[in-house]
Design a protein that fits this description.
By secondary structure, this protein is of the alpha/beta class. The chain is built from 11 helices and 17 strands. The strands form 3 sheets. The protein has a 9-stranded mixed sheet. A 6-stranded parallel sheet has the order 5-2-1-6-7-8, with helices on both faces.
Length: about 350
């Protein structure tokens, strides 16, 4: 059992900066090392670490911390209990496995990896090392989505019949690697993996998947509309990247069950529940930041030596496998593919 967890931050881009901001509010965890191949970022200057959340970059004080230009050196630091991996996606699996083999606990940003086999290897490495592995699928902790999960878990939504999960933004311009599908997986993996995961959390694994859409990463386009088929209904995941720079970020859901419909949009519709009896109610949302909540939960799991149950590595692996199946279905122009993970 870890009393005060000493953390190494691997990667100081947009998500690394976002995690560092959240970590300032988490008791019982101290960032003792940072790693980046960008000397400006390693100096603490993250003012250029932009993203699609509308938050600003800032400068951090890394004095007193160990600083590494290579994450491979950072994971060998004996002063580190755990690492928070915010590296480009193609490095998630190798960095996580190497860190686990060094005896570190691992929090890794979404998506878990770029294919199912790498996800399975990460889970095997965690089991062998007897260390905590968790993927930062933040929607499971995000204030606007927690009321939806609560409605489903309480039974108030009833049997789920349909769901629409939508997420859109401009093509990201804060890292050239994101436009390389071999490194990022494109918009489906970088963006819509959130919605795949929350759909999986609510509806479970589908029996089949279909998808249509268009990919032209050189033009900043990567869009998809995918249907997940269940014996009791269907769920649609749609959105993606819409050209560079100006297109605004938005996310939303509409989920209907026998008990009513839950609805939310970041464009101005607060989480609400429209009951089957015709009444409507505004849903209360937690005040804690989702990134803070997810990292706090990871720290709790490490301290207690308990595997995460709110966000299991197997669910995160299944989200990756489903995203791969969505891309295959899109390539096959809407053909319905059986879901065999």
């Amino acid at each position: 059992m870890v009393d005060r967890m000493k953390l190494g931050m691997l990667g100081l881009g947009f998500m690394g900066r976002t995690h560092l901001q959240a970590l300032r509010n988490i008791a019982g965890c101290q960032v003792v090392a940072v790693a980046s191949d960008d000397p400006v970022a390693l100096s603490g200057d993250l003012t250029g670490a932009g993203g699609n959340l509308g938050t600003s970059g800032e400068a951090f004080d890394f004095s007193g911390m160990s600083k590494y230009a290579d994450w491979k050196d950072a994971i060998k630091d004996p002063n580190i209990d755990a690492v928070d991996i915010c590296l480009p996606t193609h490095l998630h699996a190798p960095a996580a496995i190497a860190a686990l083999e060094e005896g570190k606990h691992v929090l890794v940003e979404k998506p878990m990896a770029l294919d199912g086999k790498d996800c399975d290897r990460m889970i095997e490495a965690a089991a062998k090392a007897k260390r905590i592995l968790m993927v930062a699928q933040v929607l499971r902790f995000f204030p606007a989505y927690l009321p939806l999960v609560d409605l489903q878990r309480s039974g108030r939504l009833g049997m789920l019949r349909s769901g629409i999960f939508r997420r859109r933004c401009a093509a990201p311009g804060w890292g050239a690697w994101l436009q390389d599908a071999d490194k990022s997986g494109g918009g489906v993996f970088d963006l819509l993996i959130h919605d795949v995961d929350i759909c999986l959390h609510l509806f479970g694994l589908p029996r089949a998947v279909s998808a249509t859409g268009w990919e032209a990463l050189g033009e900043g386009l990567d869009q998809i509309t995918s249907t997940f088929y269940y014996d009791t209904g269907e769920a649609v995941i749609t959105g993606g990247w819409h050209h560079p720079q100006s297109y605004p970020f938005s996310m939303e859901y509409t989920v209907s069950g026998d008990g009513g419909t839950a609805d939310y949009s970041s464009d101005g519709r607060v989480p609400s529940f429209h009951r089957a009896d015709g009444a409507a109610e505004k849903l209360e949302t937690p005040t804690k930041d989702g990134y803070e909540a997810e990292i706090e939960y990871f720290v709790k799991c490490v301290k207690e030596g308990a595997a995460p149950t709110l966000c299991t590595p197997q669910d995160s692996a299944n989200a990756v496998k489903l995203a791969r199946l969505m891309l295959e279905a899109r390539n096959r122009k809407g053909e319905v593919l059986e879901c065999k993970l």
